[in-house]
Design brief:
This protein has 260 residues and is an alpha+beta fold. Helices cover 42% and strands 10% of the residues. The N terminus is likely disordered.
Length: 260
C-alpha cells in the first residue's frame, strides 16, 4: 500500500498513514531476526525498536483517551507486552489498532496539553505518525533496505519536526543550547518546492513564517525525504543526496543540538 500524500492539515490522512506505516513496519520484521542491531538507534535491536514504537502508540492513546490538560506525571501504562519476542510484530499491529480506534472516537480539534506548539488532540496523531515512520525507516536501514518516503508525507514530517523542535527542551536538554546571534538555516525540499527557515537567537530559536524573503547563513537542499532523514540524524549533511551552501559549521552545530 503506498503512503498517502498529506497536507499540513490532513488529519484524516494522518490517521490512515499511522496504520499504513505500522503495517509496513510489521511486514518488515515478521520474518526478520529480531536480534538484528539497529545502527541508527545505537544499542537497540529490532525487538527493542518494535517494543518502543508499540509502547509509544499505546501511551499516546492513553493521553488522548484521558484528554490530558497538563504534563503527565507518569508514563506507566499497561502495555500488554507478549511473553515471547516472536509475538512482538502482532503486538505492534494490535497497538496500532488501539491507536486508530482512539483517533476515530475523538475530535482532533479538542484542546488538550501537548509538549509542542499545537495544543490540540491532533498534535498527538501527527507526532505518532512520524515517530512510527522514522522507526520504520530505521528497521529498513537495519535490514539493508533503502527507505522510501512519499514526498508529501516527508514534507509534512519536516514541518512537524521544525515547528515543534523549539519546545523539545522539555526532554532533550541539548535543544536548550541551540542559540545564536541571528544566524539562519534554510531547509529546501527540491521535489515539492517547500522551504523552511530557522533563526537562531541569543534566547533560543524558531521558524520564520515568510522564509522566501529571508537570506540564509546556511542552506541545505534535497528531497523532502532526505531532509527528513537528515533532521532525525539518519543522514549526515555530507550525504551525496544533500547539497549544502553557506556556513557548513552552522549545520554541524544544528545537528549536535537538535537531537531528540
Amino acid at each position: 500500500m503506498p503512503t498517502p500524500q498529506l497536507s499540513v492539515s490532513g488529519n484524516p490522512s494522518r490517521r490512515i498513514a499511522v496504520a499504513d506505516q505500522t503495517e509496513r513496519l510489521c511486514t518488515l520484521v515478521r520474518d526478520a531476526d529480531l536480534s538484528t542491531p539497529v545502527p541508527t538507534c545505537p544499542g537497540w535491536t529490532l525487538a527493542d525498536l518494535i517494543q518502543h514504537v508499540g509502547s509509544v502508540q499505546r501511551w499516546f492513546s492513553v493521553l488522548l483517551q484521558l484528554r490530558v490538560q497538563g504534563p503527565p506525571k507518569s508514563r506507566e501504562v499497561d502495555l500488554h507486552l507478549p511473553e515471547r519476542p516472536e509475538l512482538l510484530p502482532d503486538w505492534l499491529a494490535a497497538s496500532a489498532a488501539v491507536a486508530i480506534h482512539t483517533f476515530e472516537s475523538m475530535d482532533p480539534d479538542l484542546p488538550m496539553w501537548a509538549w509542542g506548539e499545537d495544543q490540540h488532540a491532533r498534535f498527538w496523531v501527527r507526532r505518532m505518525l512520524f515517530e512510527t515512520l522514522v522507526h520504520r525507516a530505521d528497521a529498513e536501514l537495519a535490514l539493508g533496505i533503502t527507505p522510501e518516503i512519499a514526498p508529501g508525507t516527508a514534507a509534512d514530517g519536516v514541518d512537524e519536526f521544525l515547528v515543534n523542535l523549539p519546545y523539545a527542551g522539555l526532554f532533550a536538554p541539548g535543544v536548550k543550547e541551540m542559540r545564536g546571534r541571528g544566524e539562519t538555516i534554510r531547509f529546501k525540499a527540491i521535489d515539492v518546492g517547500d522551504e523552511w527557515v530557522m533563526r537562531l537567537r541569543p534566547d533560543g530559536f524558531g521558524i520564520i513564517e515568510t522564509p522566501s524573503i529571508i537570506p540564509a547563513s546556511s542552506t541545505i537542499r534535497g528531497t523532502a525525504a532526505d531532509l527528513l532523514l537528515f533532521l532525525y540524524g539518519r543522514l549526515p549533511h555530507t550525504a551525496p543526496t544533500l547539497k549544502v551552501t553557506g556556513d557548513e559549521a552552522l549545520l554541524t552545530r544544528w545537528s549536535v543540538h537538535s537531537k531528540f
